[in-house]
Structure formats: structure tokens, C-alpha cells
Amino acid sequence: MKILLTGAAGFIGSHLTEHLLSMGHTVIGYDNFDNQYDPVRKHINIHFLTTHPNFTFIQNDIRDQASLTDVLRQYRCDTVVHLAARTGVRDSVREPALCIDVNVNGTLSLLEAMRLTKVRRLVMASSSSVYGNSSAVPFREDDDANLPLSPYAMSKRSAELLAHTYHHLHGFDVACLRFFTVYGPRQRPEMAISRFTEKMYGGQPITIYGDGSTSRNYTYIYDTIMGISRSINHLKGFDLLNIGGSGAVKLSELVGIIEQAVGRKAVIDWQPNQPGDVTLTSADLHRANNRIGYLPSVQIEEGISRFVSWYRQTVLCS
Ligand SMILES: NC(=O)c1ccc[n+]([C@@H]2O[C@H](COP(=O)([O-])OP(=O)(O)OC[C@H]3O[C@@H](n4cnc5c(N)ncnc54)[C@H](O)[C@@H]3O)[C@@H](O)[C@H]2O)c1
């Protein structure tokens, strides 16, 4: 396949690029090195891939529809994986307009470029945040997702709805993948596991919002990549799929698992809950298993241990 991959220089995008190239696909990576976190990290994420004969990288913004149209046409892409986004709930509360512009208008720009070039296969990143504080646990894809708690969640749900519209009007095959807190090597530096690891190694206090009882379904990057890859291969019609890890983990337990891997005790700075944060994410994976044979395989202790080894070798030693 010839795949246009937006957000290719990011955490998930760089792992996906590596995987798709290893499967023999041609990848056109598209990313604007947005400065939400240090762009140098993104250059490092993909630097080692830039000499691969089947990889082309284009630095540009997904809101530039003409550029996306040219790229789809010039490289004769048949499939799009859309990961580019302004990520993060808390950043979206601080900068709602930018989040909605990139995540909603940027997605619209991509859908229009696809329509104009007759590329009709799309796998795109959504998020567990669309479920808000759903009372039904675990979260199922047919649950209502109409009460977002942050601009980020709203933007992700809006992008799903836009994609459905293009499926209906223009016959696109679409899979919207609802990722549940993804972690592993190259994880975004502002995410909890990265921050906690950095602070523990630096002997600094870690900030915990709330009382540590909030729970998250954490997904190791390998499982997320398997979910995306399987979706690409099974793409048909319109689907919403939870791509989660094997179970929910309390924040206090997560800290214990990281302490164990780092070999240091955390000093905790307790702070009140943050607006927009949800108290629990929990994934029902039956649909993803039935439709694409998805099952996560990496347990949290193993995943954290791999992440901390990578952190020690790569970030601490650089
Ligand atoms: N990491 C998670 O836990 C998680 C959870 C749920 C959903 N997601 C979704 O998965 C996708 C990838 O997330 P990630 O964790 O790899 O984030 P990331 O920030 O590392 O990657 C996103 C990439 O998009 C690029 N980008 C941002 N704005 C752009 C624009 N206007 N034009 C072109 N490129 C742009 C950034 O430069 C970055 O490289 C995102 O859509 C995110 O919302 C991630």
C-alpha cells in the first residue's frame, strides 16, 4: 500500500512509520513539527527512518488542503492514516481554539483532499476521552459519547462525526480508533508516565492531581500499533473501535509500578483534580476483537519496565 501518514513524527506516528515500512508499505509522512512539545524530539523520532527508500517526509500543516491534495495525487496514495492533532486534555482547556482548529478543521481539510483525489480509505486516531465520565463501565463503542468534558474530547468526537459524514456521502471506508492512554518509548514528555519517570530519576517531587484513585486503561505502544495495522488490513464501511490495554490501573498503583522499575521512591506533591480530567477510562474490547482480531498482549508491569529501560538508555544518557 501507499500510505499517507499524518502526524508521522510524533510518538505513535514514528512507531507506526517504522512498522509499516517493515511490512513493505510505502509511507508518505506528513507533519508540521508542531511546538506543543519540543520539536527536536520529533526530529529524533524519525531521523533514522529518513534514509529508508520507501519513506518520504513532508513538513507541512494538515490545514493546508492544497498541499494535502498535491501529496495524495503526486504519490498516488491509496490509504490515509490520520494521527496529526493537538493532543492533551489540559492543553486544550488552555488553548481551545487552536485545538479545535487543528483537530476539526485539519480533519476536514484532509477529508476534502481525499474526496478531490478519490482516496477513500481512512484510519484515524480518536480517543477514549470522547466517553467523558460515562457511567457505563467498561466503555463500549455504542455508548453515548455526546457529553465531552474538554475541547480535546469535543474535537475528537467532532472528527469522528465528520468522518462518518464522508463515509455516508462519498463512500469512504473509515475506522475511527479510540486510543486509551498510550505509553512506551518516545511517549510525549507531558504525559504522566514520562513525567513521573523523569522526576523520579531527577529526585524531584511528582505532582498527582486528585487522591490517586483515578484509573486509566494504559495501552503499550506495541499493542496500539497492532490495532492500527489490523484496522488498515480490515478497513471496510464505517467503524468505531476501542484500542485499549488489558485493564484499568489506579494512579497510585501506576506510581508503585514506576517506582519499582526506576528503583526509587517517589516524593508526591498532592494537588486538586484538574478541570477536564476524567476519573476513569476502561475499554470494552469485544468489538475490536470481533472485527479485526485485536487483543492487547503487554501487561502494565512489562510495558513500564520496557519504557523505563528505554528512558534510561536514551533520555538519561543523551
Ligand atoms: N498518546 C495517547 O495516549 C493518545 C490517546 C488517545 C488519542 N491519541 C491520538 O493519537 C494521535 C497521535 O498522538 P501522539 O501521542 O503520537 O501525539 P504526538 O503529539 O506525539 O503526535 C502528533 C503529531 O501531529 C503533529 N501535528 C500537530 N499539529 C499538526 C498540524 N497542524 N499539521 C501537521 N501535523 C501536526 C505533531 O507535530 C506531532 O508530531 C493524536 O491524534 C492523538 O489525539 C493519543
UniProtKB/TrEMBL annotation:
Any one GO molecular-function label of the UniProt entry: GDP-mannose 4,6-dehydratase activity
Pfam families named among the record's database cross-references: GDP_Man_Dehyd
E.C. numbers: 4.2.1.47
SUPFAM superfamilies: NAD(P)-binding Rossmann-fold domains
Domain NAD(P)-binding as annotated: residue spans: 4-306
Keyword annotations of the record: Lyase
Gene3D superfamilies tied to this protein: NAD(P)-binding Rossmann-like Domain, UDP-galactose 4-epimerase, domain 1
InterPro entries membership: NAD(P)-bd_dom, NAD(P)-bd_dom_sf
PANTHER family from the UniProt entry: DTDP-D-GLUCOSE 4,6-DEHYDRATASE-RELATED (PTHR43000)
Protein name (Swiss-Prot/TrEMBL): GDP-mannose 4,6-dehydratase
Species assigned in the record: Spirosoma liriopis
Taxonomic lineage of the native organism: Bacteria, Pseudomonadati, Bacteroidota, Cytophagia, Cytophagales
